[in-house]
Structures are given as structure tokens and as C-alpha cells.
């Protein structure tokens, strides 16, 4: 049997031999002492890309998000986020558990940001009776929304509104690379509008582990203390930062191939049933399937695909997700389309 095609996530990629060579050769030191040159140069490099003063390397994107929001929001204060955002749904309540942060959410169709919807919810300086809003999180691209790229106009509008209300803005930019490739918006343009940013090296860029939280020096210094307190002060972690440098050098421009293949999958799926996905909305590497009109559940559909050699995610009773990535080529794309077409017909 041929190896299964794995489209559960863009986190499933394995480091290439060239990336492993880069890791093996990376100069290292004890990063808790600030002595790892490869980590230091990675933090400086990514901070400069986004026009930020500093960055701190973390093992996961969840930790990068959590370090960011805890520097913005005090215990008992409120963070606003979209109702299907990663911070709210996929970090196991970390904001509440670790930082005493409460959240309130606004729903957005396909995760697409409408600044007004978020701003209308905000209640800064609420006094001694109601919870005060301190920050808003924006996810770009929006994962559970289907890899949605946030419009720059809405980002500008939410920054303007946040300034008027005295609120901070966090960008969950786990897949900001995909947003940049799809939209052509420069990283330092995105960087302008946010007080803190998290980015993942282990998604589309294909590094095995690693994220970075970016902000000004003061917040990053605080975040370093909390990173250690959480037990994520790492030692000769330049081995991983070496993979991240390699990923930034070699795996950025090719993201457009992931986007093209995701579109091909969406077109094939829509040819079976238009209600499952609108290919026009597939802008990046995520294809979200709405199976509301199908006679099977997402779990049943995923099981059917798996039997045929294609792994996908069932993320809701009727919502399935396919994610294209570095280890998924044109030949596998053809094979995946054949499997999907057979599995989609009831
Ligand atoms: C993957 C992801 C993260 C971070 O996930 P980790 O598994 O903790 O690295 C954060 N935000 C979004 C939108 C993601 O897709």
C-alpha cells in the first residue's frame, strides 16, 4: 500500500535532509542565559521583518499567544476574540487558567474580520461593576474560518477604533506567512497595527518546532520571565532556531504552491456538491468543508477518506478540514482528488 496522504494539518511535515543539516550545524549556547547565537539572530530577524523591537522564541504558538495576551491584559480584565479563534477554542482555556483573563467573543462568517463587530463589543474602563475590556485579538489567516486572509482595510479600522478606545491589539499570526503570500501585504505593514504578534515556524514554513512572540522590548522582557516561569526556558535550542532560519530562507515563496493545490482540491469538491465549499473563498492552504447538506457526518467522511488512504480532520459534527503543506505534491493532489470525489458521493 502507498503511504497515506496526510492533510490533517500543515504541522505534519517532516524536516528535509537540508533542514536537518542546517540544524546540526547551527551554533548553540544556553538560551536561558541569552547565549544562543542562533536563537538570538532568529528573534532579531523576525522582529525586524515585522518592524518590532524584540522577539522571544517559544516551543509552541499557543505559548506565544499566551505570553502576548498576558502582557496586554491584567487578571480580571477582558480580551475580545472571534468566536472560532484559536485563542478561544484551541488553547484549552489557557487565558483563564494561567492569566485570569476573561474573554468575550463576536462571531464572524468564515472568520472574516469586520472591525465594527469587534469594536461594538468593547467596554473599556467599565468601573467597579462591569468587566473592563483591555485588548482585542485578530487571527490572520483565520484557521477555523478556512484560512481566511483578513482585509487590510478592516485591520486599519480596528486599529483606529482601538486607539480611540485605548485598547491594545494582538495578532495571532500563526499563518501570517500565508496571508502575506496571498495578499502581497508586507510583514512590516501588518506589524504596524498590532502591539503584540505571534508567528509559527512549524506550520506552512515546515520547521519541526517553534514560534515567536513579538512586541516592544518592555513586553518581550516580561514575556521572557513568564516563559521561564511556565517552564519553557530552553537551553541549546539553537538547534530548533536553525531549522526556523532554514524555513524562512527556503520555504516562504513556495507557500503559493500550497495555495494553488488547496484551490484545486476545493474546485474538485465543489464539482461534487457546491454547498460543501466555495472555491472562491479558498485563498490560502486551508479547505474547510461544510457538510450540512451531506447525509454523513464529518467523522464518517473522515473515516471513509482514511480507509482510502487520505487523512483529514473532522473539527465539528458537520465540518471537515483539509490543509495543504510542504510534504504534499501535485501527484498526491491528483490522488487526493480521486479519493475525495469517491468519498463525497453518498
Ligand atoms: C496552530 C495555531 C496556533 C498555535 O498552535 P500550537 O500547536 O500551540 O503551536 C495558534 N493560532 C493558530 C491560528 C493556529 O492555527
From TrEMBL:
* Cellular-component GO terms for this entry: cytosol
Location of the Aromatic amino acid beta-eliminating lyase/threonine aldolase domain: 6-289
Q: Name one GO biological process term.
A: L-threonine catabolic process
A GO MF annotation of the entry reads: L-allo-threonine aldolase activity
Cofactors (names): pyridoxal 5'-phosphate
Q: Which Gene3D superfamilies is this protein grouped with?
A: Aspartate Aminotransferase, domain 1 (3.90.1150.10), Type I PLP-dependent aspartate aminotransferase-like (Major domain) (3.40.640.10)
Q: Which UniProt keywords apply?
A: Lyase, Pyridoxal phosphate
Family, per the entry? Belongs to the threonine aldolase family.
Q: Would you tell me the protein name for this molecule? A: Unannotated protein
Q: Which organism is it from?
A: freshwater metagenome
Amino acid at each position: 500500500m502507498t503511504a497515506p496522504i496526510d492533510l490533517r494539518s500543515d504541522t505534519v511535515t517532516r524536516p528535509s535532509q537540508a533542514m536537518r543539516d542546517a540544524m546540526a550545524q547551527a551554533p548553540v549556547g544556553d538560551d536561558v542565559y541569552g547565549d544562543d547565537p542562533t536563537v538570538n539572530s532568529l528573534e532579531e530577524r523576525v522582529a525586524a521583518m515585522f518592524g518590532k523591537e524584540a522577539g522571544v522564541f517559544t516551543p509552541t504558538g499557543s505559548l506565544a499567544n499566551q505570553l502576548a495576551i498576558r502582557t496586554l491584559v491584567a487578571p480580571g480584565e477582558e480580551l475580545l476574540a472571534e468566536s472560532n479563534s484559536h485563542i478561544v477554542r484551541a488553547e484549552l482555556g489557557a487565558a483563564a487558567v494561567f492569566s485570569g483573563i476573561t474573554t468575550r467573543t463576536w462571531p464572524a462568517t468564515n472568520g472574516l474580520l469586520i472591525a465594527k463587530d469587534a469594536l461594538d463589543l468593547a467596554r473599556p474602563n467599565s468601573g467597579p461593576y462591569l468587566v473592563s475590556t483591555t485588548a482585542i485579538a485578530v487571527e490572520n489567516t483565520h484557521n477555523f474560518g478556512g484560512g481566511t486572509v483578513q482585509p487590510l482595510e478592516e485591520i486599519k479600522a480596528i486599529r483606529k477604533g482601538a486607539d480611540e478606545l485605548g485598547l491594545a491589539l494582538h495578532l495571532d499570526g500563526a499563518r501570517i506567512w500565508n496571508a502575506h503570500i496571498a495578499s502581497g501585504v508586507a510583514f512590516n505593514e501588518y506589524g504596524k497595527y498590532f502591539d503584540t504578534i505571534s508567528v509559527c515556524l512549524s506550520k506552512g514554513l515546515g520547521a519541526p518546532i517553534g514560534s515567536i512572540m513579538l512586541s516592544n522590548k518592555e513586553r518581550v522582557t516580561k514575556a521572557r520571565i513568564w516563559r521561564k516561569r511556565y517552564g519553557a526556558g530552553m537551553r541549546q535550542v539553537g538547534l530548533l532556531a536553525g531549522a526556523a532560519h532554514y524555513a524562512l530562507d527556503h520555504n516562504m515563496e513556495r507557500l503559493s504552491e500550497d495555495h494553488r493545490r488547496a484551490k484545486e482540491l476545493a474546485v474538485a469538491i465543489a464539482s461534487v456538491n457546491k454547498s460543501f465549499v466555495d472555491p472562491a473563498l479558498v485563498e490560502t492552504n486551508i479547505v474547510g468543508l461544510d457538510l450540512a447538506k451531506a447525509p454523513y457526518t464529518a467523522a464518517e467522511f473522515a473515516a471513509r477518506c482514511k480507509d482510502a488512504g487520505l487523512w483529514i480532520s473532522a473539527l465539528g459534527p458537520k465540518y471537515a478540514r483539509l490543509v495543504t503543506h510542504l510534504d504534499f505534491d501535485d501527484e498526491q493532489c491528483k490522488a487526493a482528488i480521486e479519493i475525495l470525489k469517491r468519498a463525497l458521493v453518498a
